[in-house]
Amino acid sequence: MDRVALRGLRARGHHGVFAREREEGQTFVVDLVLGLDTRPAAADDDLAKTVHYGIVAEEVVAVVEGEPVDLIETLAERIAQTCLKHEGVDEVEVCVHKPDAPITVPFDDVTVTITRSRV
To answer: Quick one: the chain helix, strand, coil %, rounded to 5?
Structure first.
């Protein structure tokens, strides 16, 4: 299986269990790895035979900016399902970063990574 990766998609969302997170929002960063067969697209040099990663990026940002959820696990699942709606995408790995998570000790990042497939 071939891979198309999008790294560092940024969007402001209002996800979290605390009222402050829901009210003020914060930046979330998403990394995606889409699993698909790129051979048909490469053979014909045809965008219609692969995934349009620009459209995927816009859809993922819309999910992050959309309806709030408590958990980034839920956000990651919604993103994965959005990606799997694209014909030809058989698998997706989603990593959601929450760099401004409300943690009281120094930290670099909080992430949740999931892998989902059509099967």
So the answer is: 35, 30, 35
| Residue 85 is among the residues annotated as catalytic for this protein | no
**pTM confidence score:** 0.96
Contacts for 23 with CB less than 8 Å, ≥ 6 apart:
14
Tell which residue, 3, 8, 21, 1, has the closest CA to residue 111: 8
Catalytic residue among 98, 105, 112, 115: 98
What residue spans of 1-119 are helical by DSSP H? 19-24, 39-44, 53-65, 72-84
pLDDT single digits (tens) 69-112: 999 999 999 999 999 999 999 999 999 999 999 999 999 999 99
If 0-12 CB within 10 Å is exposed, 13-18 middle and 19+ buried, where does residue 119 land? exposed
- Distance, C-alpha 74 to centroid of its chain: 11
- Closest by alpha carbon to 83, among 92, 74, 75? 92
Centroid of chain to Cα 67: 15
